[in-house]
Amino acid sequence: MDAVAQAHREHWGRIVATLIRVTGDWTLAEDCAQDALAIALEKWPRDGVPDNPGGWLTTVARNRALDHVRRAAVEQRKLREATLIQPQRANDDLLSLIFTCCHPALALEARVALTLRTVAGLSTADIARAFLVTEPTMTRRITRAKSKIAQARIPYRVPEGDALHERLPGVLAVLYLLFNQGYDGEPLIADEAIRLARLLAGLMPGESEVASLLALFLLQHSRRAARRDERGDLVTLDRQDRTRWDRAAIAEALEILLRTPIEGPYALHARIAAGHAGDESDWRSIALWYDELVRVQPTAVVELNRAVAHGYAYGPEAGLKMLPELENYPLSIAVEADLTARAGRTEDAKKLFREAAAKIPDGPERRALLSRADEL
């Protein structure tokens, strides 16, 4: 039923977060939330969708949790707390859940899996498929993460003051990893990363990096339909059909950036992506933003992308002079090949494209490099 599926997407995280707070039991919280959805599937087609689907599901899940707590004879304090699930705390609970799932004491793969399962409500099978592991393997990964939270007594709360600003980049890094995983493979994961970023932006409206990350996701995702041709091969940005880009997503992202100050690397990444949003890429603007980004995030990959931007803004020789030394890195060789081709040195460029292709497994990226060599 569509109404139940929509309620699942919109309210799962809050229901689970609230039940975790009052019971302290992650598995019980998820089981009771799942039971509530199953009851909704049975009752809503017959009785109609309630006016407040989230509240209805929370009440049913709470009652299931209460029954379980009573049967297990858990201490009276938790029984009293469980009878008073406060709707006004739902957002606080959800934020606490996100920060707990993304706690730095957990391995990165565990943070990713736990966020998708517990906050987003994706099935273990879907998560396993996206990360190319078996369902039992992913189940063990999620179970170990929950056990680590309990054994290490990781606090179920939102950090405050300086601790919040120290922890927030780790949360955003998990969302960014999720988006990239989905963008390159499983669309469901990319969609969930956008939804979670939108959720977090609503929970933390004063954090510019959260809003900037959402804008970045929207801008990148807007190009999804044009990124591959009918064979599934990659289409480079300069060759994409921009009429296929999602203009509504671009407009939303640009509106977010208009009201968001520049306070970190995601804000700069988002403005670089915005430089491509028009009918043509504004390479000079993009190059200027990369000049800023390389000061904030002086990594080899940023330097490589900066060289690309300068190569398109000020000529290929300018880009070639800025290339960082990244020995045997296929992407660096491919960038050198592209700039060399644009500088008119065709034979050298062909060799470089083939050299880059030889260093990566067979797939769309390799075919795209070999296709460029053949064109030359």
UniProtKB/TrEMBL annotation:
- Family of this protein: Belongs to the sigma-70 factor family. ECF subfamily.
Q: Which Gene3D superfamilies match?
A: 1.10.1740.10, Winged helix-like DNA-binding domain superfamily/Winged helix DNA-binding domain (1.10.10.10)
Q: Which InterPro entries match?
A: DUF6596, RNA_pol_sigma-70_dom, RNA_pol_sigma70_r2, RNA_pol_sigma70_r4_t2, RNA_pol_sigma_r2, RNA_pol_sigma_r3/r4-like, WH-like_DNA-bd_sf
Q: What's one Pfam family the UniProt record gives for this protein?
A: Sigma70_r2
The name this protein goes by in its record: Sigma-70 family RNA polymerase sigma factor
Q: Which domain of life is it from?
A: Bacteria
Query: In this protein, which residues make up the domain named RNA polymerase sigma factor 70 region 4 type?
Result: 98-149
Keywords assigned by UniProt, alphabetized: Sigma factor, Transcription, Transcription regulation
Q: Which residues form the DUF6596 domain?
A: 167-258
Query: Which residue numbers delimit the RNA polymerase sigma-70 region domain?
Result: 10-72
